[in-house]
Amino acid sequence: MPLWGLVFARVAGIALLVPPIGLQHVPITIRIAAAGIISVPLYYTAGSLEAAVPGLGTYTLWVAKNLAVGLIIGGAVALVLWAAVMAGTYLERLAGWSSPTPQAGIAGSLLYLLCAVLFVLIDGHHAVFRVVAASFESVPPGPGSLAALAERALLLLPARMFLVSLMIAAPALLAALLAMTLLAAAERVSLELAASGISRITAPLLVTVALIAALPAVAYVALWQLQVMLNQVAALLG
After folding, report:
1. At 46, is the secondary structure helix, strand, or coil?
2. CA trace torsion 72, 76, 79, 81 (10° rounding)
3. Are 124 and 77 in contact (CB under 8 A)?
4. Which of 53, 77, 103, 190 is 20 to 30 A distant from 121 in Cα terms?
5. What is the C-alpha to C-alpha distance for residues 88 and 104, in angstroms, rounded to an integer?
């Protein structure tokens, strides 16, 4: 039972972040319940505690350690989804859309859901389960330091999220910027177009059309980055 608690903590960190159960709109109670169910088969792959069951204080530290490992694994996958929201924000700013709330706008929500669906379609959740099962060998659930893993994760993940957001947004941004550049050039040639302020009026429409036209390329980049992050988190724990 003490070992199951450590396995559950590791799986819970992942269930909080990784689709489909880690989606923003899934209640936290469902995520925790799913983590409890998933941790049962993983319990039998985790081996056994090499040390005797410690006191409550040490065991709590072990739980926190496994929760941190789960959050690192889940964060590596969720990074692509958060990057998709950032990519949507770039497009919304270009279109001049403003949201009165700190929540993701239409473009950010669309790209977030797109990445979540793609992750499930490529069986990414199964790949995460394999990474978790392998992680019990590289990072035992019981005693052991987490400093090296945490350091590598802190160096990799934040910078990677900004880069991935630019890569996901790039196809739609380039298409929208090209269309807006052509329209601006037309305004320079025609005084009537310049006086009408058509570029300001049509900017939201141009960004919408560019996003729709670039969705296949956006999906390809998102798929690529999901695969890259799954490979990187496996190497991180290797």
Report:
1. coil
2. -120
3. yes
4. 103
5. 8
Backbone angles phi, psi at 26, to 5 degrees: -85, 125
Residue 212 near residue 179, CB atoms below 8 Å: no
pTM score of the predicted model: 0.80
SS3 state of residue 51: coil
The b-or-e profile of 12-29 (16+ CB within 10 A means b, else e) is bbbbbbbbebbeeeeeee
- Cα–Cα distance measured from residue 94 to residue 221, given in angstroms and rounded to the nearest whole number: 20
The answer to whether residue 53 scores a pLDDT higher than 70 is no
Coil, helix or strand at residue 114 = helix
- Nearest-angstrom CA–CA distance, 35 and 40: 9
Chain-wide mean pLDDT for the chain? 81
